[in-house]
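Hi R.,

Here are the chain sequences for the assembly we discussed:
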Amino acid sequence: MNERSVVGKPLPRVDGKSKLTGQAKFTTDVVLPGMLHGKLLRSPLPHAKILSIDTSKAEKLPGVAAVITGKDTWGIRYGFVDTPNYPAEERPIAEDKVRFIGETVAAVVAVDPDIAEDALDLIEVDYDPLPAVFDPEEAMKDGAPQIHGEITRTTSCAWEDWGVARKSHSYTPVNNIAAKVVVSYGDVEKGFAEADYVREDRSRSPGTSHMAMEPHTIVASWDPFHQKLDVWMNHMAFELKRYWLHKTLDIPITKIRIHKTYIGGAFGGKAPCFDYEVIAGFLSRKLCKPVKIELTREEVFSSCRNSHRFDINVKTGVKKDGTIVAQHVKIIVDAGAYKCSAPVAMFLSHAMCDPCLDRKNVRHEGVAVYTNKNFNFARRGHGAPQMRLAADSQYDQICEDLGLDPVEFLLKNLRKKGDVIPNGDRLDSYGLPEAIKKSAEAIGWKEKRGKQRDKNRGVGIGINGMFSGSGYWPFACAAIVRLNHDGTITLIEGDCEFGQGADTAYSQIAAEAVGLPLDDVTLISSDSELCPMNYSNFLSGGLFVGGGAVYNAAMDLREKILKVASEAMKAKPEEIELKNRAAFLKSNPKRSYSFTDLMRFHIQKHLGDPLIGYGYKKAVPEIEFYPSLSKGTGRFTDAYGFTASTAEVEVDRETGRIKVLKIVVADDCGYEINPAAIKGQMVSQAVQGMGDALYEEIMDDEGRVLNPNLVDYEIPRAFDIPEIEVIDCSDYEPKGPFGGKEAGECARAAVISAITNAIYDAVGVRMMRVPVTPERLFNALKAKGK
Amino acid sequence: MEGSKKMIKVKVNGKLYELLIKPKITLLQLLRNELGLTGTKQACMDNSCGACTVIVDKMAIKSCSVLAMQVNGKEVTSVEGLASEDGKLTPLQEAFLEFSAFQCGFCTPGKLMSSTAMLEEMPDPTEEDVRRDMEGNLCRCTGYKQYLAAIMHVVQKRKEGSK
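And here is the predicted structure of the full complex:
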């Protein structure tokens, strides 16, 4: 193909005009005739038996259409991790007991949201409080309150549906342990014995909120004549949400349609199945009316998924020159009341480390523990930000102890391009070395590191690696590209648009492949009924897997057009180029046929075939189903993205306040399909990472969230933003569409440790618990007498 | 219930409406639920995020914290009222597009309204002024950089144009 004219350009987003004029339809904007509104009654207690629920007064309130409780949805189970070993234990409405403050105990549906809200006050619930436990380490002790009894499977899980033979079984968690992970390679004891220096440190990353701007919302509409459920919802992959609705409501999967809406931010927080989604579908079917449930901001904070709190103990052995020879990681994940993605988070905290540095002998142990709190899910990096804080802070300290330079330390321990890492993944692209060097250079590392303490200023560095999709149901993406009458194309693919720019990037890929300008692409996306199979827009697999399927489909159409052009022009396909809705001879551009003519020609000569391209891609071709989460064996992903970040901060010793002066993000996301979108992803992660490092923490008192609003839960504002420099360190990824791979998740983790390490450089106090609030830093400075 | 409704007269995006409304509804609810103008977004309902910002008589205000009754006799502009009816975007909308100044787009209408009002009020703001003025508009996707650049681009263009 010729020089690229559509990909690699910072073209305006295809969803731009809709979003800038108020025309873009979000789920919160969906209104259907006769639509009812649902509200949820939530538990005020962290752990209690439900003795009885009296809904009679609520049912009598004029305008109330129905009230349901756990009796109506008894036995329905779902979960993000739902495997033979770990059957799902989440439920739409609490049954015999509640396990956290904010758990749904009843749902009301009424003609307007105010009446539904009023009716909640009329529901009488008689609770018998149980002892509760809020700290994972307390919860693991013998004699701690047991949050779950026997967990029994009520339906088959995705594994069984897929044909994996293993039968699932019931299990009873012991000491509130929801899941365990042990990944091990090499000989850790031998490694430590060979080390010249060993350090052990402990870090904590708290639970944080994704804080997507659009509150979680669904509209579900049951059509009794066709026995079909139409759904508009906040999601990150229609296939998964449809699968869960199908399983929980026992509706055939193709009798559920997820319609396209724009999604007002996600960051991981909208991917799993939620109680309110099952409830909306259940109520709509019960009443044969559309039902909308729009959560409040407080509900999003206290009853929707937040990120996991990780307590990490990391022990690392190094040679005098800084070569890492062994690492032993012990993680305690605060799962909350249900396990959701906790088993995955523990595994990913290892899996994202492995492509970055060669640690030689590794043992990575994780335990996820039930507590009587709201439960958690992936947030932009899923386990990696927590692990990077632990590892990068410790590397920084090891360098301080041994008189080494942290940049040199990282460069010394790098893997190499082409390396096959212990699980079998190969690093075909590996831009991390360049990213480390360039991010250090851009912050003025050599001139500044360790030399500005008199000014209370410091610089720090952090790194990260991130997968480009992995084995997850339904494992594959497909796309279709139609040639239209006028020579334009229609791209049909399933990925959803939640801000990351999928609609634009995929349209660019298709346009480029067929030699059309971006405006010549009509997009049909994110609709379960119109689009072919779709894998997901989380797991950082969007562009690599979904975009890869689009690339393959568009290239399929390209080849078909070239073939018919070569037939019509009596020339070889390689002598022909496609541009501006026409095929022409490279040697004589005046000889050309329009796509319209070629399509007509093909229809006449080839039994009516109007030229349609079809393509697909599997996330990881070499693995059959899922990588083993508990053992970490087997191929995991086909390409990794990488980031190195540096930061410069200034500390006010009087107040403990930290001012971030500059953040550098040097990222390897493979070929940049849309550089403006990539820059947006990097700046976004720099700012989110700054929020994590300095401000953000879900705080609770005995399970009650203390800051469930945007006044008390602080996120960075326009005025807080430092200078941010984004450096493109792309390494061409041979398996990615035009060489592209992961871009949206990697950088956040690197920024967090860059900032905390910069704080150390500024004042000589190691902060291994984020956020580093002024109070925490002030107290740490005081304790150290600094 | 009907008896408790009150009449208001309000001009929204240049159109005059006479409406019978429940006195307790907010301006945000008036726009979204009564007039079907869903471009204005509800994200926090406690005056803290700015997604619901509209312009009332040249002032940017958060429509979730104003009662509809309070705009009786006033002129309201929402995001739907920015571009011309035949589809011509304002310079700010053009700049947001050019600078990729939005991602998910949920807070974007609020940002556009705040910055439109600010540029009306301040003839020549510095970037510091803009950052201060936009502090009430939270955004989780963009990290603010690209939209601050878009606004400064419009300021610069305007300066050049007035020379």
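Chain A touches chain B through 56 residues (CB under 8 Å). The domain at 382-468+639-783 of chain A is CATH 3.30.365.10 (Aldehyde Oxidoreductase; domain 4).

Let me know if anything looks off.

Best,
T.
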